[in-house]
């Protein structure tokens, strides 16, 4: 069978998915809504309001779409998978209730508690209980402490104050600031000591297969300092994720998650991203995401020697157990080029030059636009430069050698992506 595919999204993750899907001999036609200048060479970018489910349905039916792939979390949490499935259309991504593993920190923590999945100790407070939350923080007297806005916050809804004064200030920020909607309920967690890593599983509701692991770099500054961002770079595989640790994660976290979701009536189909803290007591869940990470996707998908479209289709057809996942053994590193000022205020519309000089890496577009024949910045995270190598050092060095060829006004990037991994392999 050949497939007409609609891919929803516009960032670096979606450019990567389009790149992977476009390599499939089973692809007939690829549409990306809305896509970006990078995806334009891989399929047809279409201006579609993906929050308007009826408009998406009309496009699917008028273009004989066989499979819809949802890139970002927002449409999934809004229930697009439920809507399309009810209309008889195949869609890759969890339904609304299953997507609450990402859409609600409270739902995820309560689910893990019911299923005995290792995670941090926590308490939940509604927005009108923030005074109680303050008293709870004072009574625990353990710092740092982790404050998480319950809803979606584009990767920026987590604050980690290191003192009582900082914690009370952070509470007020969550109650009255730009995240007040996402923080209508607040999860307060104990701080877990350790090193973070992420494991990615592809699921069809009954079974799952691990398709890779990575380590993201959330903080904007060198040495993991400064504000949280959507991610400043990633590398894969992460040396901290040993074969033995991966076995533990599969047995103690991923399998109970998939089995538990099915048992509770929300079969999980799509990508399950498990954010982990590797503690002295073993791996514990920091968070779930209901889609490929961004920028982790950019180092996971290129490692797949299997046909990505074929594997995605197997998930929607419930035949994943029969699919073969073949991954190569190379290391990959992606470094994010960002706009000056990100993740706070930044300017758009800066001309980007030098991409055509990149010859030993893949450049995935994240926040770009074409205007009057010029490529311009159009977001905080602008480009992802992905290189590979036989060793982690080779991959990192190749990424930085290529990123130096690209320029735009006030561009910046972290120079220490992968440094933690290098300490474990040298």
Give a topology summary.
Blueprint: E1 3-9, H1 12-22, E2 27-34, E3 44-45, H2 53-62, E4 67-70, H3 73-77, H4 80-86, E5 91-92, H5 96-103, H6 105-114, E6 122-126, H7 130-140, E7 145-149, E8 158-159, H8 164-176, E9 185-190, E10 195-204, E11 208-216, E12 219-221, E13 225-228, E14 233-236, H9 243-263, E15 269-279, E16 282-289, H10 297-300, H11 308-317, E17 331-338, E18 362-365, E19 368-371, E20 374-377, E21 381-389, H12 392-403, H13 419-425
Parallel strand pairs: 1-2, 1-4, 2-3, 4-5
Antiparallel strand pairs: 6-9, 7-8, 7-9, 10-11, 10-15, 11-14, 12-13, 14-17, 15-16, 17-21, 18-21, 19-20
Descriptive overview:
The structure is a single chain. Helix content is 30%, strand content 28%. The protein has helices at 12-22, 53-62, 73-77, 80-86, 96-103, 105-114, 130-140, 164-176, 243-263, 297-300, 308-317, 392-403, 419-425; strands at residues 3-9, 27-34, 44-45, 67-70, 91-92, 122-126, 145-149, 158-159, 185-190, 195-204, 208-216, 219-221, 225-228, 233-236, 269-279, 282-289, 331-338, 362-365, 368-371, 374-377, 381-389. β1 (3-9), α1 (12-22) and β2 (27-34) form a beta-alpha-beta unit. α7 (130-140) runs antiparallel to α8 (164-176).
Short synopsis of the structure:
With 426 residues, the protein is of the alpha+beta class. It has helices at 12-22, 53-62, 73-77, 80-86, 96-103, 105-114, 130-140, 164-176, 243-263, 297-300, 308-317, 392-403, 419-425; strands spanning 3-9, 27-34, 44-45, 67-70, 91-92, 122-126, 145-149, 158-159, 185-190, 195-204, 208-216, 219-221, 225-228, 233-236, 269-279, 282-289, 331-338, 362-365, 368-371, 374-377, 381-389. The strands form 5 sheets. An 8-stranded antiparallel β-sheet has the order 16-15-10-11-14-17-21-18, sandwiched between helices. A 5-stranded parallel β-sheet has the order 3-2-1-4-5. A 4-stranded antiparallel β-sheet has the order 6-9-7-8, with helices on both faces.
